[in-house]
Amino acid sequence: MDRYTAIIALANTTTLVVGGLIVLLAYRAFRRTGSSPLRAVAVGFGFIVTGSLLGGLVHLIGENVALGIAVQSSFTAGGFVVLWYSLYTSGSTATTIRRSTG
Fold it and tell me: CB neighbours (10 Å) of residue 42?
C-alpha cells in the first residue's frame, strides 16, 4: 500500500459525501422550482461524484492508478462542462411553490 492511498481515499470520500449533498440539494431545488439551470447543476455535480466513485473503484479493483485518474478526470471535466452550461442556460418561468407548515 502506497503512502498516498489514505490521502486519496479521504479526498474521494469527501468528494462523494459533500458532492452527494450538493446533488441532493440542487435536485430538491429543481423539483421545487422547475428551474433548468438547477437541474443542470445537479447533473454536473452528479458527474463529478460518479467520476470520483468510478475512479476509486478502478484504482482499488483494477489496481491501475493511471486509468483511475483518467476516468475520474474525464468525469470531472464533463461535470464542469455541465456546470458551465448551467450558468448560461435560461431559467424556467415557473414560480416557487411554498408549502405551508401548519
Answer: 22
Nearest Cα to Cα of residue 24 among 3, 7, 43: 43
- The answer on pLDDT for 95 being more than 60 is no
**And the C-alpha cell for 21?**
449533498
CA distance 63 to 102: 55
Positions of E strands within the chain: none
Q: Are 9 and 56 in contact (CB under 8 A)?
A: yes
State if pTM tops 0.70. yes
Cell match 433548468: residue?
36
Cα separation, 89 vs 99, whole angstroms: 27
